[in-house]
Amino acid sequence: MVSVDKLISVGIIGLSIMGGLATFYIISDLSKQKRREHIEGMVSQLIYFTIYLWIGKIIINFSIFIKDPLAILAYPSSSHAFYFAILMSLFVSVIKSIYTHKEERNFIESLLFVLLVTSFVYEFIQLVWNNNSFAIGSLVVSCILLILFISSRGRITESTLMFVIATLWSIGMFVVAYIQPITTVFGYIMMPWFVGVFYVSSLSIIMIKKRRRESRGWN
After folding, report:
1. What is the pLDDT of residues 111-167, one digit of tens each?
2. Distance (Å, whole) CA 205 – CA 166
3. CA-CA distance, 152 to 150, in Å (whole number)?
4. How far apart are CA 159 and CA 210, in angstroms?
5. How far is CA 192 from CA 120, 125, 173, in A?
6. Is the full-model pTM beyond 0.70?
């Protein structure tokens, strides 16, 4: 049976995602059609991420899954399953960048904005409602990155903006890890080694996308 705390945690994440999508739809300068298309794309990405998260949970608890597949439902997703889902998402993004000829302009920028708003809303709820003091560090990082994103958008290229956000987020996570006993993102502990792996992976994706866009004459 799924615990009440687990349901509340999922509810907070869902509320945060809705807040991020709603904020994007309201303040985005894209056409209504493009906004709807981007939101549909983001929902698809979320579904894929959830699938990767479940696959990661099954791999980590494989012996239990073999004995009783339904028992896996009772096990919460661990940080390692979360890492797996993130890395799988990045890997699929690389594959699409290499082999997919069609690429939606501004989608990554829109997705990044929604992620920053979602993270800010989630950490704010954790701090105010759940009185989780460990959320302060991630909340400050999210707030700084969100302000930077909004103030820099349109002034620098998308690839440069992604590089700056990825770099500052990684630095922020390392700083928070040094100050606080634990560093969390959406309730999952961020280990320093994973932050490093995520940063290197992000830079690889940025470089690949930048080269493809330059070959097409995009900024």
Report:
1. 999 999 999 999 999 998 888 888 899 999 999 999 999 888 778 887 888 899 999
2. 11
3. 6
4. 6
5. 21, 24, 8
6. yes
